[in-house]
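[09:14] KT: can someone run the structure on this one? pasting the chain below
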Amino acid sequence: MTYSDNIPRKEVARIVNVSESTIYRWVDAGKFPEPFQLNDHTFFSRKEVLAFIEEKKKKRGFGKPKK
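[09:31] RB: done, C-alpha coordinates below
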Protein backbone atom coordinates (compact mmCIF):
# COMPACT_ATOMS: atom_id res chain seq x y z
CA MET A 1 0.00 0.00 0.00
CA THR A 2 1.26 3.45 -0.89
CA TYR A 3 0.99 6.18 1.70
CA SER A 4 0.52 9.84 0.91
CA ASP A 5 3.21 12.38 1.71
CA ASN A 6 0.44 14.86 2.58
CA ILE A 7 -0.19 15.36 6.28
CA PRO A 8 -2.73 17.63 8.00
CA ARG A 9 -1.66 20.49 10.26
CA LYS A 10 -2.74 18.63 13.41
CA GLU A 11 -0.35 15.80 12.56
CA VAL A 12 2.44 18.30 11.79
CA ALA A 13 1.97 19.90 15.20
CA ARG A 14 2.13 16.45 16.83
CA ILE A 15 5.30 15.47 14.95
CA VAL A 16 7.09 18.73 15.81
CA ASN A 17 5.58 18.75 19.33
CA VAL A 18 4.26 22.31 19.20
CA SER A 19 0.80 23.83 18.84
CA GLU A 20 -0.88 24.36 15.48
CA SER A 21 -0.72 28.12 16.07
CA THR A 22 3.07 27.88 16.53
CA ILE A 23 3.36 26.07 13.20
CA TYR A 24 1.47 28.92 11.50
CA ARG A 25 3.57 31.59 13.24
CA TRP A 26 6.69 29.83 11.94
CA VAL A 27 5.20 29.61 8.42
CA ASP A 28 4.29 33.33 8.49
CA ALA A 29 7.84 34.15 9.60
CA GLY A 30 9.32 32.03 6.79
CA LYS A 31 10.86 29.58 9.26
CA PHE A 32 8.83 26.47 8.37
CA PRO A 33 7.76 24.75 5.13
CA GLU A 34 4.59 26.24 3.68
CA PRO A 35 1.36 24.26 3.52
CA PHE A 36 -0.72 23.74 0.40
CA GLN A 37 -4.42 23.32 -0.36
CA LEU A 38 -6.14 20.24 -1.78
CA ASN A 39 -9.93 20.31 -2.07
CA ASP A 40 -10.30 23.00 0.61
CA HIS A 41 -8.06 21.11 3.05
CA THR A 42 -4.64 22.27 4.23
CA PHE A 43 -1.71 19.87 4.11
CA PHE A 44 2.04 19.87 4.61
CA SER A 45 4.59 17.63 2.94
CA ARG A 46 5.82 14.96 5.40
CA LYS A 47 9.21 14.95 3.62
CA GLU A 48 9.57 18.71 4.05
CA VAL A 49 8.56 18.58 7.72
CA LEU A 50 11.02 15.76 8.46
CA ALA A 51 13.76 17.58 6.52
CA PHE A 52 13.06 20.69 8.65
CA ILE A 53 13.54 18.62 11.82
CA GLU A 54 16.74 17.00 10.53
CA GLU A 55 18.18 20.40 9.58
CA LYS A 56 17.50 21.70 13.09
CA LYS A 57 19.24 18.65 14.59
CA LYS A 58 22.30 19.18 12.39
CA LYS A 59 22.56 22.80 13.46
CA ARG A 60 22.44 21.70 17.10
CA GLY A 61 25.13 19.08 16.59
CA PHE A 62 22.97 15.94 16.74
CA GLY A 63 24.06 13.16 14.45
CA LYS A 64 27.67 14.31 14.27
CA PRO A 65 30.37 11.78 15.16
CA LYS A 66 31.86 12.22 18.61
CA LYS A 67 35.51 13.17 18.78
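[09:33] KT: thanks! The beta strands are 6-8, 36-38, 41-45.
[09:34] RB: yep, looked fine to me
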